[in-house]
């Protein structure tokens, strides 16, 4: 085991721990690499996080044959399939499972679908993004296929060699997968960025095939039931992919005050984030939580107001390109990872920012 410390002046980076000797030979690699990407879609488009999973699949090995699996029913599925066929040059095939049983992305039927598609296609790898969708489905599918998944991969060093964070992102672990095929993993989409609107100009696109669902059994599917889909604000950028994120912590003190964060985010065209303390206090819903048990983000600009910088919060945002923190406590740990820090009262700073940004318009 080796441990290497990589330290930077203001933004301490994690330790790297290797769980196996890097010089040891790779365990037997499958006859050829073929990867199934589990894709999430909405409004007829494949989600950006699933495109990151394709980008990750592309780094497994040269010549990897990548199939993208979409499920659902109706016209929006067909639209998403067309999008999938032309959205990334690495996709060689789009598989579509069109059935009412998969109209909503429930984990149990999806896991069964993955099991079925694996039996039909014998993929060497199965990948999904570390979104709620991927984290919900992949472990269930792995259990059905009797393999152990590798989660939260941030770097792929070879077909069976992966790097993932441990201890809330304070150390990086090199994992060698030595189990049976398929090798299943979730990847952090922030580590495999795909430019927005990266649709490929290929004229024909990848072929689209229907999955043979004749043996798709209904056993055990009814364990969960779809109730409804609620979405906070469709106008705002998605927290996981936004270029700018404005986050509020417990320092905001109330849901009413948290609206200051929302106003500022609106002016900056940013997504809104929150700490777990802010979520637990009921200021905002938990889908906005950033951190170890929330979303992992890595925007170009992350602005934190009234956030102390607990290790579990840093785990979700420390890879942001530029971090700005406003906190009235000079010793707040958030300043240790910030590129710019302002020791000030957020209730004075935000109104001033709002005023200045209005003047600029
Ligand atoms: C297993 C586990 C998982 C967790 N997962 C997460 C996670 O995913 N995400 C997460 O965020 N947390 C997570 N936590 C909680 C985490 O440990 C912290 O409790 C939380 O991040 C603190 O949130 P906060 O910074 O908003 O609150 P606090 O720590 O209370 O900090 C509030 C900050 O606001 C500042 N402040 C107060 N008033 C003002 C003002 N007027 N102007 C400027 N600054 C002001 C204070 O100086 C203080 O630094 C987890 C904890 C555990 C145990």
Automatic annotation (TrEMBL):
It comes from the Eukaryota. Its cofactor is FAD. Pfam families: ETF (PF01012), ETF_alpha (PF00766). Residues 35-220 form the Electron transfer flavoprotein alpha/beta-subunit N-terminal domain. Belongs to the ETF alpha-subunit/FixB family. The electron transfer flavoprotein serves as a specific electron acceptor for several dehydrogenases, including five acyl-CoA dehydrogenases, glutaryl-CoA and sarcosine dehydrogenase. It transfers the electrons to the main mitochondrial respiratory chain via ETF-ubiquinone oxidoreductase (ETF dehydrogenase). GO terms for molecular function: electron transfer activity; flavin adenine dinucleotide binding. Heterodimer of an alpha and a beta subunit. Binds 1 FAD per dimer. SMART domains: ETF. Keywords: Electron transport, FAD, Flavoprotein, Mitochondrion, Transit peptide, Transport. This is Electron transfer flavoprotein subunit alpha. It is found in: Mitochondrion matrix. InterPro entries: DHS-like_NAD/FAD-binding_dom, ETF_a/b_N, ETF_a/FixB, ETF_alpha_N, ETF_asu_C, ETF_asu_C_CS, Rossmann-like_a/b/a_fold. One of its GO terms (cellular component) is mitochondrial matrix.
